[in-house]
Amino acid sequence: MTMVDGTIRAAGCVLWRRGPADGQLEIALVHRPKYNDWSHPKGKLKRGEDALTGAKREVLEETGMECAPGAILPTAHYMASGRPKEVRYWAAEATGGAFEPNREVDRLLWLPPAAARARLTQARDRTLIDALLAALHLA
User: Fold this and answer.
1) Rounded to whole angstroms, how far apart are CA atoms 75 and 92?
2) pLDDT category, 137, cuts 50, 70, 90?
3) Does residue 1 sit in helix, strand or coil?
4) Which DSSP category does 84 fall into?
5) DSSP E strands: which ranges in 81-133?
């Protein structure tokens, strides 16, 4: 969704779970073949859609996961295709679902925080991992 000021509005989540094998924190990262990058699930808001609804929709569309949003995480501001972009984020626990590769996202990885930080393509996405750990009182 675009506002009058030309800013692209988007939302997403830092999706997390407790690992099935050891109960350790794992963070979901998605690979987008169009950009050949690893990021947190996020996307543009639809007209009239509030950011939290959009964030949950994007998580479901990109990861196949239902989620329970929690703490608000820092908002990212950057330029995309010559226009300002604002992406609002939430910490969100995965509550169920299954990933199916699709046109937009071809891979999903669940990684421990340090490995997720290293895999992320954009530096701005790495700070969200620190914010998640602080929100979960793990920092």
Assistant:
1) 15
2) very high
3) coil
4) E
5) 83-97, 107-111
- Residues constituting the chain: 139
pLDDT value, residue 1:
46
Asked if 42 contacts 58 with a C-beta cutoff of 8 angstroms, the reply is yes
Tokens of 8: 């692209």
Is 60 exceeded by the pLDDT of residue 104? yes
Amino acid in the structure at residue 10: A
The reported pTM is 0.94
Domains of the chain, start order? 8-135 (3.90.79.10)
d(CA 110, CA 4): 38
| Cβ-based neighbours of 49, under 8 Å, separated by 6 or more | 1, 57
Cα separations (Å) of 41 from 4, 21, 139?
Answer: 25, 24, 22
Distances (CA, A) of 109 to 7, 87, 118: 30, 21, 13
- Cα separation, 128 vs 97, whole angstroms: 23
137, amino acid identity? H
